Amino acid sequence: MDKFIELGQDMVTLWVNYWPRYLVGIRSTLLLAISATIIGCLIGLVCGILNTIPYSPRDPAPKRILLKLIRAVVRIYVEVFRGTPMMLQAVFIFYGLPYFTDQKIMFRGTSGMWLAAIIIVSINTGAYMAESVRGGIISIDPGQTEGAKAIGMNHVQTMTSIILPQALRNIMPQIGNNFIINIKDTSVMFIIGFIEFFGQHRNIVGNNNMFFQSAAIEMIGYLCMTLIASLLLRWVERRMDGSDSYELVQADQLTMAAGTYSHPNRGTPFDEHSKEYQDRVSEGLKQRNGSTRGER
C-alpha cells in the first residue's frame, strides 16, 4: 500500500510540474489521429469502390484490363501496408523518400514533421479501411443492386444512393476501431522525431528519470482518450440507426381493396370463424332460397 501511495504522490508531482507539456502531447495525438483517420477512410473508400466495380466477359477488353490492373494495384497496396509494421513504414517514408529522390523531397521543420506523420498514419489506415469498405459493399444484398438496375439506375447512382449508405453503417464499428487504434499507434511516430503524447513522456523522463511514474500518467491519458472516443462513436451509431419506435400502418387502401386486410374484431374476410364470412354466407343462402321459391 505504501508503494501505491508513493506512486500517487510522484504522479501528482509530475502532473503539477509538467501538465502543460502533457496536454500539448494529448492535443497533438488527437489531431493526428482524427486527421489521419478521416484521410485514411477516404483512401479506403476509394480503394473499396474501385475494387468492387463489376465487369463481365462481354465488356470491352480495355475496360476489363483496366479494372484488373486497378484491383492488382489496390491488392498490392493493401497487402504491403497491412503486412508491415507502421514503425518501419514511417522509416521508409520519412527517410526513404529523401534517399530515393536525392534529397529533393524532404520533411523539414515542424510542418514537415506533421505532414510526414499524417501521410504515414493515413496510408496505413487506408489499407485497413479498403478491406472494410469492400466487405461492407459486398455484404449488401445483391437483390438491391438488381432492383436498382431494373428501375434504370446506373452503377454510380446505385452506389451513392443505395449501397454506400448501408455499407457505411455496416463499417461504422470498424471506422471507430481504426480511430482508437490510431490514438495509440501515433506513439510510434517518435521514430521520426514527431512529438505527441508518448514523445512528451520520453522528454519528461529525460529530465527526472521517473519513467514508471510518467508511464502511469501516459496509460491513464490514453485510456481516457480511447474511452471517450468509444462513447462518442457509439452515440454516432445510435444516431445513424434512428428511432427505435415505429408506428405500423394499420390501413392500406391497396391492401384493403385486394380483400386481404384483417379487421381487429372480425378477422379476415376469408376466415370461416369471422362474423364477416358468416354474414356473407348467410346472405348468399337467403338469396338462393328466395330465388328458388320464386321459380316455384
Structure, explained:
With 296 residues, the protein is mainly alpha-helical. It folds into two domains: 2-241, MetI-like (MetI-like fold, Orthogonal Bundle), CATH 1.10.3720; 253-295, no CATH class. Helix content is 76%, strand content 0%. Helix 1 packs antiparallel against helix 7, helix 3 (86-100) packs across helix 4 (109-138) and helix 5 (142-150) packs antiparallel against helix 6. The longest helix is centred in the N-terminal third of the chain and has 49 residues, at 2-50. The termini are far apart. The model is unreliable at 251-262 and 292-296 (pLDDT under 50).
Count of helical regions: 10
Give the helix proportion (percent range).
over 70%
Q: Report low-confidence residues grouped into runs of 5 or more.
A: 251-262, 292-296
Q: Report, as a whole number of angstroms, the end-to-end distance.
A: 111 Å
Topology of helices and strands:
Blueprint: H1 2-50, H2 61-82, H3 86-100, H4 109-138, H5 142-150, H6 155-185, H7 197-208, H8 211-241, H9 253-257, H10 275-295
Transmembrane segments: 30-55, 76-100, 112-130, 179-198, 210-233
Domain ABC transmembrane type-1: 26-233
InterPro entries: AA_ABC_transptr_permease_3TM, ArtM/GltK/GlnP/TcyL/YhdX-like, MetI-like, MetI-like_sf
